[in-house]
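In the laboratory, one determines a bound structure by crystallizing the protein with its ligand and collecting diffraction data. In a computational setting the workflow is compressed into a single prediction: the sequence and the ligand go in, and a structural description comes out. We illustrate the idea with uracil.
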Amino acid sequence: MRMYDLIEKKKMGQELSTEEIYHIIDGYTDGSIPDYQISALLMAIYFKGMNVRERYDLTMAMRDSGEILDLSSINGVKIDKHSTGGVGDKVTLVLGPIIASIGVPVAKMSGRGLGHTGGTIDKLEAFPGFNVELSDDDFIHQVNDIKIAVTGQSKNLAPADKKLYALRDVTATVDETSLITGSIMSKKLAAGTDAIVLDVTVGDGAFMKTKDKALELAQSMVDIGKRAGKKIAAILTNMDEPLGYAIGNNLEVIEAINALRGNGPKDLMEVVYSLGAQMIAFSGIETDKAKARLLMEKAIEDGSAFNKFVEFIEYQGGDASFAKDINKFKPAKYIIPVKANEAGYVHAIKAEAVGLASMTLGGGRETFDDVIDMSVGIILNKKVGDAISLDEPICFIHANSMEKAKVAEEMIRKAVSIKAEKCDEMTLIIDTVE
Ligand code: URA
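The predicted complex, in structure-token form:
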């Protein structure tokens, strides 16, 4: 099989066979096919796409490029949750303990943040001592014991994706549905759970800026998951403005702790309950989603979700006294209000720009080697739809450098739109694909 012929075939819009797709992925993973040929192929896929059968083969070949976790020794229906990325997204920190406290096994591999989006693993490191690198055995043992474990992605999980993603990043071929499907679903399938609930974000702070593109991606991932024999659903959620009020690592962790104690922002809780109801339905514990929601509300009210969070942090070696006393988190040196220049209603708080402002403060990374400043970030004082008066703070910048705070302030001012006429709050749950 000549790589040249396979590039030519896709360039002409023809279908690649299962054998050809495995040849490409295996050859790229072991280094026998060079970057320049894969780059050309990626661009051909970008323009010509892949049908569902090709996408499935691509996903399976990428899954098979590394280790596939065997979670069969965990009792019950194992469920994973994945977000395609957002700003202020602390959903896993809240949702995981809630549904684990109800008895749903949460076996979750999470990533670190990159660019304007945050990562769960970084946030969990806010608890001193928290171990983000569990061995497979410890991971399985923990889920059996306390129903929840969250670990960083094992190095040998879908190694083809690591190489391909890095190449897509520099060849302008990230935003193509078949390639995103292969990338996300290969990792989800290698992670070995029985069911997957996808949070496909839509809007300014998301990968997919429009509902149509997000729906196409959601449908594609659900198709592949079903073909692979998994229970799977995707929920499209709005990411035009940040989720909740807090953006930045410690600030988001504090918001998550408050949410588990019953003081969660409305939008965050809406996403948590929608994803959670689907997870609980898949688990078989409660298939009526309205009743599943009541179970989750009860877990917050009676303290069992918060207690589960404390148990989970302690089990993984973290200092859970921070969860019991949020004043223990080190604050940033400066807290600076960004005041409104006019009165009216908030029409937009663009999520991507706010995420980038937080990154400018030191709260995010440009490359995987960057070190994050855990204490910086932004606390919104208003959400889209709120009334605001002149000089009232739109948000508060938490910074360790005045210089960086000034740059962040400029970025936030450009991201916020205030108009005289009233404006509705955003619709959060846009659609569901099952
Ligand atoms: N997240 C991934 O893991 N892969 C993609 O291609 C896009 C988002």
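The first strand starts at residue 79 and ends at 83. Keep in mind that any predicted model is a hypothesis to be tested, not a measurement.
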